Amino acid sequence: MKHYNYIFTGTGLAALMTVYEMISSNKIADKTILLIDSDAKKTNDRTWCFWDKSTLFEEIISKEWKNTLFANENFRKQLNIEPYHYKMIEGLDFYNFVFGEISKHKNIHFLQEKVVDFSELGHHCLVKTEQNRFTCNKVFNSIFNLNLVTSQKKYPLLQQHFIGWFIKSKEPVFNENAATFMDFSVNQKGNTRFMYVLPTSKNEALLEYTLFSKDLLAKEEYENEIQLYIQNLGITEYEIVEKEQGNIPMTSYPFWKNNTKNIINIGSAGGWTKASTGFTLKNVTKKSKQLIDFLEPNADFTKFHKKDKFWFYDLLFIDVLYQDNSIGSELFSGLFKDKNSGLILKFLDEETSLFEDLKVILRCPKIPFIKTLFNRIFR
Asked: What are the tens digits of pLDDT across the range 320-343?
């Protein structure tokens, strides 16, 4: 069996970001690395959006917006998100960028096979695919195990699930300078449902019908709602250029407790997704940098993660929406009712002080969170 220093099981955002940080750190010249995935990452299968005030991945940003819009059934307003810009990266651009960097390093290899098992065996780890077996010093796993969450009751699971259409319309209806962050004017049907619109020109946009809820819908329900929204925009003729769909786990389940000394769970599999929003890219960027700083020849992965106040805030947020999924519009409207929303984004980036936390928390509906807090304390 061939031996590597590091093996990555899965090559999603977290794995590729971590390898990219390894390359950038100049710490892997003497390390052999194997990335294994059944998907060759040759298609534009998703988009990642994030707010940022730096030049993170500036070379592959496909679109950015200085302004965002928020709406519910009662109001619609443009938000001031200074000092941030809202940015979009297309999946294929990201894959090509990172794999381009990987191709410059002969010690990093990619294998297109399906991982079926991995385990720690004392001083090394064993990784099995359908065709091969490998050993390594460390495993970085990003294969999500849904059963870990569904087999327990302490930490509820919501799902951010969506279908998106990228369309070209006959009518120039879109404001290409403003992204619609959340539009809760769509029928809520007892859930937290909103439309997410990313215009790239006056005639082109990505429209995603999104839910934060326990259960998925039939494909037709998402697409019927997108069609209705398009009609309400006044569009009579359009072409569907691309489609995408996704399902992001939203939970504060402590995935890190399943880490071992030499196996670490990363990405959604490691709880790196921001539980309260499902936003991933910025969180993964931070976590991958922290992991590379932590990584040493004898690093014990059981000591990598530490709880903080933001983990607890997310836990309460998920609890509230899990118990009453119909109040999502009220909750987010409270947060974004003020046009100056930079503080909210700073809070969601987990960069606020305790005083700033309180300013954000006081915008939320009080009774549901107080009840949830007492239930969580005395559970």
From this structure: 999 999 999 999 999 998 767 899
